[in-house]
């Protein structure tokens, strides 16, 4: 498998364009199954998870066309299978998102229980229980979710915990349900909001968008005319490159992004000593050559500090001045990057769901192994300031969520190259 070799020591400086958000593109691609007319999706990031989703839709008989700018046209009128097979679903948990749209529009779905990053237990019970409340007949057999329903019925759904994919799956099911569905304790992440706006553009009737209370009045059909929709910018990619510049004492201007989606992250970067300036669609960070100060964070659902930025801040804290306490409340197994950072000389002590990071003067390059998507980003960030070469293995994780990361970092002055297997 491919590896990244990074020589540390360069202070990042330059400008980058941010890609579309993976975590918005995946549910929106799944939602195209609800449309009777072709749908055109723009600002789609070029990522492994996107190609996996496209392969999954293609296996079902859906017709997909991609142009040179990664605009994807999806026509689900050609669908001939309602099966999401294990060999695809096991590599990407987001494949579960076809369950709601298939069941709502076609009355049938056979979806393998999901896989994805090993960052903790992410059960699909909330998806299944919600669909059962809406009248679905669901059986779990042979590692598959087998679901059937003549037409789902609107109802009141109180989600027992905040779940992004659970909210998305149930919302996609609700838009074609008979009657009104009220969802309480819904996820408020921007990617959920983007999906809701897309569904409304196709003809859904959803109100409460951006809040934890979503209401959908079911309609007979969606997408009677062709719809074009652009994916929102990736807030996690944005935050990752901001951390990369901060850890090196550098400067970066990120374009085609949304500062309003990153309030918690930007506040912590300012606390770390960064000068942040923003416009409507850009963010500039400047450390003026300074070493960052350690910051303490606690991950919580949006709009609080995102769990998907926790690993990157652990890397920054590793060489920061002082002690930073990082508490992870969303996933119980999301500190696997700590052992790899320790191999590079980081002083991080784990106590249950908390990482106590004491900044050191320098990190040293070492062979390290990516364990999940955001952990891999933290290792790349740490390598940018480590003395000597760092070899990051198993980078298929990073390719799931970062569009040409080595090319973008090279544009900022990093010494980084991909080595084929």
Structure description:
It is a single chain. The chain has 421 residues and is of the alpha/beta class. It is built from 14 helices and 24 strands. The strands form six sheets. It has a four-stranded mixed β-sheet with strand order 22-23-1-24, with helices on one face. A four-stranded mixed β-sheet has the order 2-15-17-16, with helices on one face. A four-stranded mixed β-sheet has the order 4-5-3-14, with helices on one face. Strand 10, helix 6 and strand 11 form a beta-alpha-beta unit. Helix 5 packs parallel to helix 6 and helix 8 runs parallel beside helix 10. The longest helix has 13 residues. The chain is elongated, with a radius of gyration of 21 Å. The chain starts with a strand and ends with a strand. The relative contact order is 0.16.
The coarse overall form would be: elongated
Rg over alpha carbons: 21 Å
Averaged pLDDT, please? 94
Number of strands: 24
How would a textbook summarize the main sheet? 4 strands, mixed
Q: Would you tell me the structural class of the helices and strands?
A: alpha/beta
Helix count? 14
Q: Order of strands in the sheet with the most strands? A: 22-23-1-24
The portion of residues assigned to helices is 25-40%
Low-pLDDT stretches are 116-122
